[in-house]
Amino acid sequence: MQDKEEERTLVNVERRLNKDGFTADFRVTDGRLHTIDTDRDKSYGPNEVTIVDFYRFEGESNPDDMSILYALQTTDGVKGTISSAFGTYGDSDALEFLKQVEDLGKNLDKKHM
C-alpha cells in the first residue's frame, strides 16, 4: 500500500487524472481558458468551465512553496488540468479566471472521483 504522502505528489495525481480522461493542458490568456498542444486552439469563458476537483501541494523544503492543480471540464466535454503556484507567486490570470468560475457557482463537481 502506498504511503498517503506519496499518493499526493503532483506527478501521481496528474497520472491518475490522465487515466480519468483529464488529458488536455490548459492556460489562461486574456481572461479565457485555452487548450494547449491540440490541433486547434479552443478557448472558453468562465461560464463554459467547471472545476471538477483541485489539489494543493506543499514544497518539500519550504511549506510556503505551494502549488495548486485544478481538474477542469468544459461545456463541450474537454477535460484537462491547469496548475499554478499558490499565493504570492501564483499565475494571477489563471487564479482570477478560476475565481470567476467559482463565483458562477460551478466550483466543484466531484462525480469523477
Give the arrangement of secondary structure elements.
Elements: H1 4-7, H2 10-19, E1 24-29, E2 32-36, E3 43-44, E4 49-58, E5 66-74, E6 79-85, H3 92-103
Parallel strand pairs: 1-6
Antiparallel strand pairs: 1-2, 2-3, 4-5, 5-6
Organism: Hymenobacter rigui
Protein name: Phosphoribosylpyrophosphate synthetase
Written description of the protein model:
With 113 residues, the chain is of the alpha+beta class. The protein has one domain. It is 23% helix and 35% strand. The protein has a six-stranded mixed sheet with strand order 3-2-1-6-5-4, sandwiched between helices. The radius of gyration is 14 Å and the shape is globular. The N terminus is likely disordered.
Low-confidence stretches: 1-6
Taken in chain order, the helices and strands follow as HHEEEEEEH
How are the strands of the biggest sheet laid out side by side?
Answer: 3-2-1-6-5-4
Strand content: 25-35%
The rounded distance between the terminal residues' Cα atoms is 19 Å
Protein name: Phosphoribosylpyrophosphate synthetase
Organism: Hymenobacter rigui
Task: Kindly summarize this structure in a few lines.
The chain has 113 residues and is α+β, with helices and mostly antiparallel strands. It has three helices and six strands.
Features:
6 strands; six-stranded mixed sheet; single chain; disordered N terminus; 113 residues
